[in-house]
């Protein structure tokens, strides 16, 4: 009996279960049937001892996209990293590494959203020569490489949608290039997916 193979299949199954939980939670959120309007004191007391999130979410800081709410997840169920434009950087990579090495979350999600202000600003910077404040410019420079190859002649809304998706896909790609991700991917004990949150419907669209 190949115990190593069994373990890898089990961990891969755990990641798929985690992804299914996110999808089911988002469906409840869209239907207006969220399960966690309040938090019981015993739950907080238990979580004070340790955390065991089933997924790590790298999302945007936009106030309209709180991962715990849109996935109908309770306290302690998600390890959430939020930064404008869901971009990467040393601190973000360090936090992702912590999630993988110490929290052992089987599922990682890069969550972008429609009408992202950071991505829109990056588009303006690339196409129209807009000059943002210095620190914001540093952030936007992390988004610019994702915009290469996008059809800039399409309507503004379609262009922004394409840019948002391209930014998510690039972030996923960059994470997969790290040594840690390569090791876990080879061991089949991690799943990494990209997703887009639709502001008006509340639905999360997971990318292929």
Q: What is the compact description of this entry?
A:
The chain is α/β, with parallel strands linked by helices and 208 residues long. The protein is built from eight helices and five strands.
Structure write-up:
The structure is a single chain. The protein contains eight helices and five strands. The protein has 208 residues and is of the alpha/beta class. A five-stranded mixed sheet has the order 2-1-3-4-5, sandwiched between helices. The longest helix has 29 residues, at 3-31. The chain is globular, with a radius of gyration of 18 Å.
**What structural category characterises the helix and strand content?**
alpha/beta
Q: Estimate what percentage of residues fall within beta strands.
A: 5-15%
- In this structure, how is the largest beta sheet organized? 5 strands, mixed
Uncertain segments:
none
- CATH architecture verdict: 3-Layer(aba) Sandwich
Q: N- to C-terminal separation?
A: 33 Å
Helical content stands at 40-55%
Tell me the CATH superfamily.
Carbonic anhydrase
Total domain count = 1
Number of helices: 8
Please give the CATH class. Answer: Alpha Beta
Order of helices and strands: HHEHEHEHHHHEE
- How many beta strands in the DSSP annotation? 5
Rounded Rg: 18 Å
Overall geometry: globular
Q: What fold name stands as the CATH topology? A: Beta-carbonic Anhydrase, Chain A
Strand order, sheet with most strands: 2-1-3-4-5
Mean residue pLDDT? 91
